[in-house]
Specification:
The chain has 82 residues and is an alpha+beta fold. The protein is 18% helix and 33% strand. The radius of gyration is 16 Å and the shape is elongated.
């Protein structure tokens, strides 16, 4: 049996937490991001590219492949919901 091409499925992603320390004080603001990158360190780096110095980025854990697909994300993309 011969296959003309090999299909590579989308892998799991990562749930990433971004914490913003408010410049005027008060409790920090936390936003959850969904990243189409299986490696936690790479997922943090992807989200970090848009973050300010007063924000920290931490990978929380895996995001199932089905959720990555449902969010319409392609490898390296991310989104969040307010």
């Amino acid at each position: 049996m011969s296959f003309g091409s090999i299909l590579v499925g989308m892998a799991n992603g990562q749930v990433v937490l971004v914490t913003t320390q408010r410049l005027e004080g008060g409790p920090p603001l936390r936003v959850v991001y969904y990243v189409a990158e299986e490696n936690p360190t790479k997922a943090e780096a992807i989200v970090s590219t848009l973050m300010a110095p007063n924000e920290s980025v931490v990978a929380w854990g895996p995001l199932p492949e089905a959720a990555v697909k449902a969010l319409g994300l392609k490898r390296g993309e991310f989104t969040h919901f307010p």
